[in-house]
Amino acid sequence: MAPTVISTFATTQLDLLDYELQAELEETAELSSQHAPASLQRAGLAVLNLHVSNQRTGFGGKTVVELEHDPAVGLSELPEHGFRAGDIVGIREQVGGAAKRREKSEAEKKGVDGVVVKSTSTTLSIALDKDEADMPGGKLWM
To answer: Is the pLDDT at 101 greater than 70, yes or no?
Structure first.
């Protein structure tokens, strides 16, 4: 067996990780474009009716936002979901069902991306990718 060259191995691993990330991003974009947010929530792939309960500076100077159910909805615990620490998520403004297609596409573009830092039964903590990220207002979904 020939010895493994570390630089070649590392480059190959990085390429595979990038390929996996791109595949997951494409899959997520396809799911969100073909299904309504409510059906994604039933499948555990989205959480609706969120609002920012806290915002702080986290490790490395990243902005960390804590999201919980909007009190107007009446639920204190989040529904069952598949979000775990390390998952890459997008936070978007939740537009009404009567909104026009153009308004929905604009709301998707205004969202922010981040990584789940902590997941509890009542909150999701997200470290935002950008330092100067503008959080959308109102009801949110991810």
So the answer is: no
pTM, whole model, 2 decimals? 0.75
Mean pLDDT of 69-97: 82
141 burial type by CB count under 10 A (0-12 exposed, 13-18 middle, 19+ buried): buried
Q: Are the C-beta atoms of 77 and 123 separated by less than 8 Å?
A: no
Residue type, 55: Q
Give the Cα separation of 47 and 11 in Å (integer).
Answer: 36
Q: What local confidence, expressed as pLDDT, does residue 132 receive?
A: 59
Q: Pick from 90, 48, 88, 85: which is nearest to 69 by CA?
A: 48
**DSSP annotation string for the chain:** -PPPPHHHHHHHHHHHHHHHHHHHHHHHHHHHHHS-HHHHHHTTS---SEEEEEEEE-GGG-EEEEEEE-TTT---SPPP----TT-EEEEEE---TT--HHHHHHHHHT-EEEEEEEE-SSEEEEEESSTT--PPPSSEE-
